[in-house]
Amino acid sequence: MLVIDNVTKSYGSVAALQGVSLELKAGEFFGLLGPNGAGKSTLMALIAGLRRPDSGDIRLDGQALTPDNLRSRNKLGFVPQTIALYEDLTAEENLRIFGRLYGLRGALLQERIDQALVTAHLQDRRRHYVKTFSGGMQRRLNIVAALLHRPKLLLCDEPTVGVDPQSRNAIFEFLQTLNSEGLAVIYSTHYMEEAAKLCSRIAIIDHGRLLAIGTLPQLMTRLPFRESLRIEGANLSRDSLAPLLSFGELTSDADAHVLTLHASTHLSDVFREAESAQLPTSSFQLTRPDLEDLFLHLTGKSLRDS
Ligand SMILES: Nc1ncnc2c1ncn2[C@@H]1O[C@H](COP(=O)(O)OP(=O)(O)O)[C@@H](O)[C@H]1O
Ligand SMILES: [Mg+2]
């Protein structure tokens, strides 16, 4: 559906994107995970057709996504990182303006506005001024405003920054519902938990380059370390753990044993075997590498600290 081919974009001497390529299939929930300054918003603005790449191209259903191609741009909705609403207008008035920009009129426009207010859980606030809204309410309104024309692709640029936990969950839920109904989503974030929870595929971006793309399990195979079980208890001999040796590699120190699991190992098999050997499974501690570990492995720095 969306093809991004070798896209480059610089601001003066700052190379914001360097040779970015990726393909998105219809209905995907795609994550763009990277720290501040990675190039996420720049890529979003290029896909939205708000800016032109310096080189490379971006096509939606085979058509160029450029600032002058409105037909293609109408197939997507864009929720920018910075909330773009008229504060001195009501929720409903804002939606009417956005809808008209997309060419909606009359009964259809009113129907879409009513649905948008329901989706955003803002029916009771339709006549309230946006400036009285919390960050989360504004964000919800901004997202549904980008959906009034029923795009097939929604670009959401860090939609949960500055949003309370309750609104965040509401945003997750309605994005997941819309996605299950067929909407493709590109979701940028610097929170690895969000990417892991929401996205069917994730691209890790840093310094304008895509470092890895795949499903979460695919990405995790890029890490040289795997799930491990820490087994406390100096009184447990290595011999007593012999039944587990087929599942991984065992290392031991004075306090504990650590069984680093083979990629093919199923955790449930380990526990079944351990229980039948009457090992103290309740004290087993599982360590599972996550996207943070992967980011550290790929870049040498932490996603959280950067
Ligand atoms: N309008 C701009 N002018 C100059 N530099 C910019 C501009 N927008 C972004 N940059 C720079 O481009 C890089 C990528 O920024 P951005 O796409 O906003 O990253 P992210 O959204 O991942 O935080 C950063 O180094 C940023 O400082
Ligand atoms: Mg950004």
Would you kindly provide a written description of the structure presented here, covering whatever features stand out?
This protein is of the alpha/beta class and 306 residues long. It folds into two domains: 2-220, Rossmann fold; 228-288. It has ten helices and 14 strands. It has a six-stranded mixed beta sheet with strand order 6-7-8-3-9-10, sandwiched between helices. Helix 3 packs across helix 4 (106-119). It is elongated. 34% of the residues are buried. Magnesium ion (MG) binds next to helix 1. Magnesium ion (MG) is lined by residues 40-41, 81, 157-158.
Strand order of the largest sheet: 6-7-8-3-9-10
**How many structurally independent domains?**
2
Kindly provide the name of the CATH class of the largest domain.
Alpha Beta
Most strands sheet: 6 strands, mixed
Shape: elongated
Helix content: 25-40%
Order of helices and strands: EEEHEEHEHHHEHEHEEHEEEHEH
If you average the pLDDT, what whole number results?
A: 92
CATH architecture of the largest domain: 3-Layer(aba) Sandwich
The fourth-level CATH homologous superfamily of the largest domain is P-loop containing nucleotide triphosphate hydrolases
Summarize the structure.
The protein has 306 residues and is of the alpha/beta class.
Main attributes of the structure:
single chain; 306 residues; alpha/beta; Rossmann fold; 2 domains; six-stranded mixed beta sheet; 31% helix; 26% strand; elongated; binds adenosine-5'-diphosphate; binds magnesium ion
